[in-house]
Design goal:
Largest sheet: 8 strands, mixed
Distance between the termini: 33 Å
Order of helices and strands: HEEEEEHHEEEHEHEEHHHEHHEEEHHEH
Helix content: 25-40%
CATH superfamily of the largest domain: Bira Bifunctional Protein, Domain 2
Number of helices: 13
CATH class of the largest domain: Alpha Beta
Strand content: 15-25%
CATH architecture of the largest domain: 2-Layer Sandwich
CATH topology of the largest domain: BirA Bifunctional Protein, domain 2
RNA sequence: UCCCCGGUAGCUCAAUCGGCAGAGCGGGUGGCUGUUAACCACUAGGUUGGCGGUUCAAGUCCGUCCCGGGGAGCCA
């Protein structure tokens, strides 16, 4: 039976005859003694393995280097040396997998994030990315935990979609056609001959299916990958990312604003409470002000301000913004950053955006000029949530669809939800990676996903 | 996609005005009775991102392409 490093480090008393398996982080050798730091991914810490140089080892110690996988059998005893409470006095050591130290790229020193991205298959073996992936796992569970506690049903929305326009962004085409052939014939491609008998794409959002389920089950959420084919080259965009999308029947804009805040705060607090060892690494090496900021964000209410009021604040700021401030124009990054990082110095919810800036499914407010939409902005990462109350009135929805230059017939089933027992409902999308960036202080989205997909990057 | 910066040993970087391409770490070898990013000594390691140009001479200047980073747009 294999003992995890995590268990061994938490031991209350010495134990004999333990077997540990893991990867060697460093080897220190002296005349008669060899020290190995063993990590098995169960936690951030390593277990020190102490072995006599003369100890009979089937493979010999020459083969044991940084990166090698080993099995160590022995007794867990209090460590006489400084720096660790326990160590394993090895009775025997076996090499499970060699790692030739010459080409092995990970050294026992700090590597740049840029270099580690080029060896994404090995970077989880570093302290930082081991911690990152454990936190990512814990955050995923926390999402499910939160919604389960609040009576939500977890639903699976499709990844392949037949709808051309799900709201925003360029979409990836999904096809079973041989794209070489139609190109040679120089004919327009006939997607009626394709697998689904129509054009298909990877989804950009699970919202539309979620509305259907919400209007049956009440409170639902999706949590899965979504895809954007935008040629975005920034530290905050990926072509494939995970989104959390709650959708609530009988809810209005205020309710999802309440919930957005509660969700972000609960998830942040969950990680602070349950991943303290891994989080300590990020506070120490990535962002010294991390702990203080998370503490503040998770305990104070978020500011709420309408789009119109935002314009007033920005105009009064006397700041020299590059982009114009005029009612009807979208807020730019410089505006959001000023609002979030200077004016309020904390999370901000902006609501009631001009109607023409928002997609057809967002509810038209009584003023007929704004949509019941809201964005949550966080310091450093910017927009983390976008949501809205949905348009539940069929005639208004149809008008908005046509206004957008779309065909209502294409949305026949979505419109049916408004024909039969339509109710007010609302929801939002939370960018999972952006939340992870906020929580860990990571400044590039490529560092919070094990194998990030971005333009021109599909090596792994 | 646009703007700015960068690409030199496995990694992180230096190289003055255009004048012999270097250091630390990592690797190898040897030493050291318990190390903690161990320590000491020795040692190997280079098409300076690719192609073209200017020059007696290019890591350095010019053109172009590729790659990376930052900012912007789009968004979560």
């Amino acid at each position: 039976m294999r003992t995890r490093v995590k268990q061994a480090l938490q031991a209350q008393k010495p134990q004999n005859g333990l077997v540990l398996k893991g990867w060697v982080r460093t080897k220190r050798e002296s005349k008669g003694v060899v020290f190995l730091e063993l990590n098995d991914g169960s936690c951030r810490g390593n277990l020190q393995i102490v072995a006599d140089s003369s100890m009979i080892c089937a493979e010999g110690f020459e083969g044991i280097n940084t990166g090698a996988a080993v099995l160590a059998e022995g007794d867990l005893v209090p460590s006489p040396g400084r720096g660790q409470k326990w160590e394993l006095k090895a009775g025997s050591i076996q090499v499970l997998g060699y790692a030739d130290p010459k080409p092995y790229p990970l050294q026992k020193k700090r590597h740049s994030d840029e270099f580690l991205r080029s060896i994404a298959h090995l970077r989880p073996r570093t302290n930082k990315y081991g911690a990152m992936n454990r936190i990512r796992s814990e955050l995923s569970f926390a999402v499910h935990h939160y919604f389960r506690d609040h009576g939500f049903n977890y639903i699976h929305s499709p990844i392949i979609t037949g709808s051309d326009c799900e709201g925003a962004g360029e979409m990836f085409l999904v096809t079973a056609l041989d794209l070489e052939q139609p190109a040679v014939r120089k004919k327009p491609v006939d997607f009626a001959l394709d697998f689904f008998g129509k054009k298909a794409h990877l989804t950009v959002s699970g919202q539309l299916p979620a509305e259907s389920l919400a209007c049956a089950l009440g409170d639902v959420y999706t949590f899965g990958p979504v895809f954007r084919a935008e040629n975005s080259n920034t530290p905050k965009h990926a072509a494939e990312f995970w989104m959390v999308e709650p959708e609530m029947a009988f809810a209005d804009l205020d309710e999802i604003m309440d919930m957005s805040q509660d969700l972000v705060q609960s998830l942040t607090r969950h990680i602070m409470n349950n991943c303290s060892e891994d989080m300590e690494l990020f506070t120490r090496f990535v962002d010294q002000s991390l702990e203080e900021r998370l503490e503040r964000v998770s305990s104070r209410p978020f500011e709420r301000i309408s789009y119109s009021m935002v314009l007033e604040v920005l105009q009064k700021s006397k700041k020299n913004f590059e982009f114009p401030l005029e009612w009807g124009l979208d807020l730019q990054t410089e505006h959001e950053r000023y609002l979030c990082e200077e004016y309020f110095q904390g999370p901000v919810m902006v609501y009631n955006y001009p109607l023409e800036l928002k997609p057809f499914y967002m509810r038209v407010n009584d003023d007929q000029t704004t949509a019941a939409a809201m964005d949550v902005l966080l310091p450093r990462v910017g927009e983390i949530i976008g949501g809205s109350q949905r348009e539940e009135r069929l005639e208004v929805l149809d008008h908005r669809i046509r206004e957008a230059g779309l065909d209502p017939e294409e949305y026949w089933w979505y419109r049916d939800l408004r024909r039969y027992g339509s109710v007010p409902h609302a929801g939002f999308g939370l960018g999972f990676e952006r939340l992870l960036m906020f929580i860990t202080g990571a400044s590039n989205i490529r560092d919070v996903i094990p194998f990030p997909r971005t333009p021109n990057a599909l090596e792994f």
